[in-house]
Each structure stands twice: as structure tokens, then as C-alpha cells.
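If your schedule permits, I should be very grateful for your opinion on a structural question. I have a record of one protein: its chain in single-letter code and its fold written as C-alpha cells. Kindly check, if you would, that the fold set down in the C-alpha cells agrees with what the sequence suggests. I remain grateful for any guidance, and I place the record below:

***
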Amino acid sequence: MLKGKKILIGITGSIAAYKIPYLVRLLKKEGAEITIILTPTAADFVTPLTLSTLSENPVLSEPYNKKNGEWTNHVNLGISSDLYLIAPASASTLAKLANGIADNLITTTYLATRCPVFIAPAMDVDMYHHPATQNNIDILRQRGHYIIDPAEGDLASGLKGAGRLEEPENIFNIIKDFFLTAQNLNGKKVLITAGATCEPIDPVRFIGNHSSGKMGLAIAEEAASMGATVTLICGKMTTSHESKWIHTIKAETAQEMLNACLKHAPDNDIIIKTAAVADFTPQHVATEKIKKETNNLKSIALKPTIDILATLGKQKRNNQILVGFALETENVMENASRKLHDKNLDLIVVNDATQEGAGFNSNTNIVTLLFPDGTTSAFEKKPKRLVARDILSAVANIINKKQKTT
């Protein structure tokens, strides 16, 4: 699976750098081609000689050779690689990556990289939990990068807590799994809805919900990385969603989202509806802002919106995959199962909103995949980008099964 894959590894100044030679050895055994960039401070923890011997390639450190002036082409490094792993990523490097500071070969190469980026932080517990570090990690997650969260345990400082670089074997398996599922959706067209709809009361007020759109965006980005042509229909979202790889359509209200779905659904092989669409909308929308002094807003008459997922389920082609989400607080699996069958879905992603780290506005999610035959796949809490990969891997498996039976 890794044979011939070009993996670029950036090692920064952290005591955890000593683990990377073990990772290099595992990757080389699988046939990967390894290029290593080492910051000057990282060389205090692990030697270029060790890394060049294991990788069978010269170790890069400076932007150019100070003896002969030969330039290290960071642009080619970023373009030609299949995966860029920065591990260990120090707090300083995380800050540079998040803010676009390019002052060494690792960071300049990062800005020129087109391939998937994996970042494995490692530092002391208080540094890791500092709001500045967490904010930088959030920024990098929002860019669609894979964050390999540090493990908890004994740290070099003598403290205990989160901050240990994930073990080489686990990082190796994450990379291997990535390439195992990469391009599984090559040539497929995927339609995704995300975010919250806003049902206007008057020109300045609306009925809405707390959906951030993060889960839908993660699925859109992951589908694009797996080779799909992606259309994202999005309502109100709290995170940036500009990408040259994703065709984005704005749909503020439930009706606008319905219209967009009906227009684009027939052309897509896979439809994944993560958007939190309002079940009701005001019967009448005031043309002017309703003034508090008039005391006219004693009640708002509502009417039901059209069920988009059920509508798409009725129109679904035999070779089309339809995926829905169920965010529940009680009778979770029973309610999700009913929704799965009533709306003619191929898969439903079940969230228990009462679990910490699941649901709206979180960067993580906890999901169970429920299939029409009653089988389930439950997953532990993960970053939403990794949850997206689990969902899309299941979709790819459904497609493969359907192809074998036709």
C-alpha cells in the first residue's frame, strides 16, 4: 500500500524527535520513499546521519547549501510529495504554521505543499493546553489538516498529562490507513449539505440552530481528497469553507436548500445530508423590523418545511447512495433506525447529543454508523476530519457491495 509513496517528514526541535527513526524504519519496510527535513534545533535530539541512513536519502535542513549555493527547492518538495508529516510539531512550529510564518525549510515547504498534511504535536502538558496552542491547532484543523493528537503519560519535564508524541507504530498505522482509503471515491460525484438554515422573521431576525457546519465541511474536504468531485450546499456556517476543490452553493433557508438539492441531486452518485434544516418556518415574514415598543411579537405562527431528506429518498436512483444524520438525545438508536427506513437511506450517522465531544460546534464527534440490515459500526471520539474518513470509507464499501451484486 505504501510502495512508491513519497512521504515528506518535517522534524522540529522536541525531545520526542528520538521516536522518528523508528517511524522511518516502519515506512521504509513498506516501500515508502522518505525525504526528511530537520530544523537546526531538531538536530540536537536526533542526528542527520541516523536519519539519512534509515531513509536512504540526504537529510535537508537549510534553504540552500552554504558551501556551493545550491538551492533546496522547497516548492518541488511540497508539490511532489504524496503526504507531508510534521512530527514532532513543537508549539513554536504550530504557531508558525497557523500564521503562515515561513522562516525555515519546514515552514516554507508547508506553504508550498499541495498534498495532505499530517501534524503530530509534542510538548509539555501546560504548553499543549495553553489557549494559544489550542487556537493554533484549531486553525490547522479548519484548514483540513490531520492532527494526530498527543498521548497522555509521563513527560520529559517530570509532569504527567497530554503532550507525548503518539507512538511511531500508531502514526504508521494512521498513514497506512490513509493511503488504504485514499482515492476510493475517484470519479464519483458527491453532494453534501452543511450548516444551519435561517428562517426569517423579519429583515434582521431569524429562527435557527447551533449547527456550525464543521462536520459537513470535513466530509466535503475528505471526499475531495479521496478523488471525488464535490458540491457543497451550505447554510449558515461558523467556519471558512472556501476551497478550489469544492463547488460551494449558498442556501440560507430550508426552501433554498431544498431547491438546490433538487437541482443538483440527479447528477450526483452520493448525497450526504449533514445540514441542520429547520423543521418549521414562519408563516409570514415582516417586511420591516418589528419594533419592541409595538408589542406585536406576542407569538409567531409557524408552518412545517418540506423534509429534504425524505424527498431525496423518494427520488433516489438504484445506483445512488443517500446518507443522513440523526442527532438524538433519547431513544437514540430506535429513532435513528426509524429515520433510516422511513427516508430510504443507505446509511445513517447517529449522534448522541448528550455525549461530551459530540454534536454542534465541537471539533470532535462521536458517531455510530447504522445500516439498513441493522448492523452498526461504533467509533470513539475523534476529530471531525477523521470521522469524515470513517463515514466515506463506509460509503465506499456500500458502493463496492452494490457493484458486486449488479
